[in-house]
Amino acid sequence: MSTPMTIYRELASLAPVIADFKARTAAPAERYRGLCGFDGFIDTFVRLQIPSSMAEFGPKVAAAAGVSASYPASHLGDKFGGNGPLFAAAMHDIHGGEIDLTYIGAMGAGEVLPIFHDALVGKTQRLFTLAHPAHTTCLEFTDGKVMLCDMAPCGDVTWERLLECVGGTALDELLRDAGFISAVNWGKLPHAGVIWSNIANRLTELGVPAKKTHFFMDLAEFETRPPADREDLLSRLGPITRQCRTILSFNLKEAWQMAESFEGHFHGKKSPDDVAELAALLRSRIDVDRVIIHPNDGAACASADGTVYVPGPYCREPLISTGAGDNFGAGCLSAAMRGLDDAGILLAGNCASGHFVRSGRSASFADMRNLLDAWSEGALGERL
Q: At 171, which helix (H) or strand (E)?
């Protein structure tokens, strides 16, 4: 039986969705508790000046093969990073600090490094570090980014190490109380699938009711993972979904790559209809409650209720792009926790990322509502 597909092409057509979003996010809510994990990176940001776009940079690099090349750049400094830490920080800001967060990840060997301590102590209740952080040099362009990753420490993030650092009793207490879990960056963490499965199994063993806990998963870039790893992951998602309310999120490139596992040929297809069709395909083949795909100008969600596409507040020249996907995911998860439908979840994700790329800071729900007002009035600029 086919499910309905709804494509919202213009913001004006979203009026009922916007009204519901504003009502639900402005109303008082319970204080949510949850945990985020499990990576940790230190990001060094470099802004290429000339050429400023990836489209120009790629051919120049190719033409310089076998010789050398030099390009002017601005070093923007170091920042705490990793999908998990950025996601956790965004969750705190979206809820205006009215949320109890625990972060478990790679933030230092033995103790949390100052760069993570300074960024997260004020936004979390507890921090547990598992390993040294990885390191990424982020080349920022006007039309995207290139991330050069030293991922060797990611192999140290294991279920055994998590139990050692957190403790079985403390972990069980966290899981009993958790309304949500965000488990991100499977692509960089070779042992993430085992961690995800064991968390879901632990929830079941603890007697946590099925579908009580929201479980958000983002694969991040997984191009280097072999097909066998992808198959292993897919086999784990069914049991996780039986216990939790699952959201599996992809950027468009990742969704194209995953579709190849099911003989879906979508590379280069970017229209709203194509993205929605791709989401529907993936959801029909992957055992999760929701599949979400987020290009940089909108997003699609496929669930048992059907497939929906919602446009986003596209920013041609983002102030920063690293972290936009994590803010998008935090917006989606937060909206799901507030009980919004698929369109409202996408709207929240789009507004969270749209605010972040314009301002460099994570949005609150109030910030998202203000962005929607400016967008509706045609007054939304490239900066906030």
A: helix 168-177
